[in-house]
């Protein structure tokens, strides 16, 4: 997976994934199903208009991001929620560990949170001798297997029922079974005890509403509600980009999120939390904390074009529709967020030098941009990051962390020559005529290009010659 | 430390220069989603049933009997009610001997194990429903706490047809949710479910396995 010193070994990962028919089969089946379900879910909608609204809602929120974050902070505090800010993942982990220590917490139950994966929270808690147990079924399976999620919505999508049965048998003593109902019931029974005894519940946030100070969570299983209701302390952790002005803005985003993700008109639970338990209430956590995590987002925010990345509502539709993701699976990327969104987000968070293969791991087929519910121009951003990787040109100064990682010494001179040749008709004719004449001398090995393809060879006649010949031929004599 | 982090993050965000104002938000695509009362009921029912929710149409006068009949069909013996539940008197009068009515009138800490292990069903009111997605709106209160709709294996909820709305946007606007939210508000759309094991849909993940909605129609056109 990732290693903190070297770049993500994407190509070796891809090779391993492509050689594994099991992984390819699991992803192919799952992604085909998800694409169909999404299509059907938008059947009776004016989808283009809804996506335009979704995009406008996110752009408005991002436009006013600093003001909205301050308003969220003020409103949440007024509601009794304790608000914390963290510049990076380590700072957020330290804050959360401190809250747990102050409460003498030994055991933490977790709802699904991608930002907590991003900052490797479980690892930090473990080092502080605090046990963190994932309660979303997919995350629970992945945690037992000591793996990371391979999809942001369906973390255990890479495993089939038999593998999960074997895993649960080994780790928990569950009787082997290929019945998903039996396995689910077994996990439910095991986790019930843990919910009752957990000292702290940690969850993510799907939308943070500034004007009412409300944290919205989307889920199907009920583990998110148990996590945020049963333990005496709830800590919600979220990236700073998740804030929206009001509940009005949530309506279109929710309509887009669940349909884009899994083809459901809505999830079983839409949980809106606006404060801790009040003195007259019989249940709910006595303490609620909100941890706002930057972790590179304020840098992404600086560039108008790249900031579109922050519109993401984490539905996963781009990966479900990506021909690359479907073939290699989420683990090949070796980063928290895989697939098309990962390919534009991770280079900006980690640096292009850590993720040099990400912008080019795409055929630019455009499917991701076409299905994105908030119209993130993912293909356009991939091209932008390709320019950043080679330091672009004087019109497009590069500034993403680790830019220029792919700029060679020779290539800029080749392109300079290319541009020079194309500006002069005489030179162009001479160049193409020479290429046609000596076509057999062109190299047959061209680095990575010829690993899977034959090297292109110039045609025997130039385009100019061909057209000239055609005109002569057609002209009545 | 934390206040410095806040200042740092906000200062960095404020360094961004915006070259153009953001686009207008045109909500008409959501506002256009409106249905007649009959369509609303049908849509609500279809959506809820498509995720294994159960809808029982009844009238005010037949409600108690409908609840008791449904409970006896699942052999429920321990039913949880809210404090000051509008159903308590009626159910107590009409119930048969082997149904116990429990009332959620103490802090969860004093009876957590009983709630998690012994209560078989809970009956709650609702604040309304949403036809577009087949959702119930619940605002838990001190009388009807949050865990009632979450922990027992069966959740029964009473919804009056005149409280069925078109969309979430309509509800949020008409009821002015932005003016003040309860500590916890919920949309519930079916029994709890998961598809995390190879995309196989399973109902009854961590929440209730069954959700039964009693749709009460005062005009008596139900049943």
Give structural attributes.
heterodimer; A: Rossmann fold; 3 domains; six-stranded parallel β-sheet; four-stranded mixed β-sheet; B: alpha/beta; 7 helices; 12 strands; transport (chain A); iron (chain A)
Please tell me about this protein's structure.
The complex is a heterodimer of chains A (477) and B (223). The model of chain A has no long low-confidence stretch (mean pLDDT 94). Chain A is built from 22 helices and 10 strands. Chain A folds into 3 domains: 1-41 and 316-407, no CATH class; 47-156 and 200-298, Rossmann fold, CATH 3.40.50.10420; 422-474, no CATH class. The N and C termini of chain A lie far apart (70 Å). With 477 residues, chain A is an alpha/beta fold. A 6-stranded parallel β-sheet of chain A has the order 1-10-7-4-2-3, with helices on both faces. Chain A has a 4-stranded mixed β-sheet with strand order 8-5-6-9, sandwiched between helices. The radius of gyration of chain A is 26 Å and the shape is elongated. Chain A has helices spanning 10-18, 21-41, 47-63, 65-78, 89-102, 114-118, 121-127, 137-144, 161-172, 180-197, 223-229, 247-262, 297-300, 317-320, 323-328, 339-350, 367-371, 378-389, 410-423, 425-437, 449-452, 463-474, and strands spanning 82-86, 107-110, 131-134, 200-203, 207-209, 214-219, 233-239, 243-244, 269-273, 287-293. With 223 residues, chain B is an alpha/beta fold. Chain B starts with a helix and ends in a 7-residue tail after the last strand. The model of chain B has no long low-confidence stretch (mean pLDDT 95). The interface between A and B is large, with 103 and 81 residues. Chain B: Residues 1-25 are annotated as: Disordered. Chain B: InterPro entries: FTHF_cligase-like_sf (IPR024185), LUD_dom (IPR003741), NagB/RpiA_transferase-like (IPR037171). Chain B: This is LUD domain-containing protein. Chain B: Residues 41-216 form the LUD domain.
